[in-house]
Amino acid sequence: MRVPFGLIQVALVLAVAPWFAAAQTPALFSRPMLGYVFDSSMNQVRMIAGVPGAASLTTGFAWTGGTVAVSPLNTFGLASGAGLSLLDWSGSQLAVRTIDKLEETPVQVAFSPSGRTAAAYYRAAARLRVWTGLPERAALLTDLEVFPPEGAPFAMAVSDDGQAAAALVAGKLIRMDIGAAIDGGASYAALAFRPGTRDLAVADAANDRILLFTDMTTAGAPTPLAGVDEGIAGPAALAFSRDGKQLVVANHSKESLWSMALESKTVTALDCGCRPDGLYPAAGNAVFRLSDSVKGNLSLYDGDSEEPRIVLVSAGVERGAL
User: Fold this and answer.
1) pLDDT (tens digit per residue) in 33-46
2) Of 125, 124, 135, 131, which is closest to residue 160 (Cα–Cα)?
């Protein structure tokens, strides 16, 4: 699958608006930070400031150049427009770089668990492109012509080394390197690579089970991780903890969040009365946003506390967060 490419030479553009300069205050930068989220209604990347249980959404920076996918590192993101732009807000100024000039908006952008590798799929051009070394040394690792089946919704995942990529199209699991479906006897709702590996966990919503494919570059028969007996019911989203030792699943049928310690197989369930649309990494080992929207209060799953819990993030806007 590996198609080596040299480092992409890109022009560095420092985009610093007057409001941005006024926002640089040491007191705010010293605050704990849980992550960032793109607010399409306000055309802003907003900061989640504080700690689980005492956090609020604050004003970040304006962005009108397309939808922003935030890296799990929460220090940069990729903006999907005509091609891709890398927005790096880890320093004192916002740095904007174009890393792909393809004149098409990608159907999907996905980060690896570490956040340093990303994949973009362009449907019209039938291209899958994978970058590594993000954000400082963005290099195009793979550029493949792929033809996955048509259908929606579309979700995608990529491994940390960039050698394995998979997608869900209309409930089918697609190996992106060959553009073909595997394990046709299931209807999948979510997928996630385990950090540092090419192992892929998938949620089979039709059969209420979680499966693990070992090494998606070969994709042999999957291993069952959990099913109805372990409390899986309508799995709709899943994610690994940063250390790869815990798997978290959002059960829509039971309106619960479920987690398994993969070494001991210990299972913990938390009734939340919620139906998360995803599990998006925040700062911490097993802390996730439960929505990619900031309408109303934003919820977090805090798996790092002594007992897993759901906490709310105040939606109030505080000026000058970034």
Assistant:
1) 999 999 888 899 99
2) 131
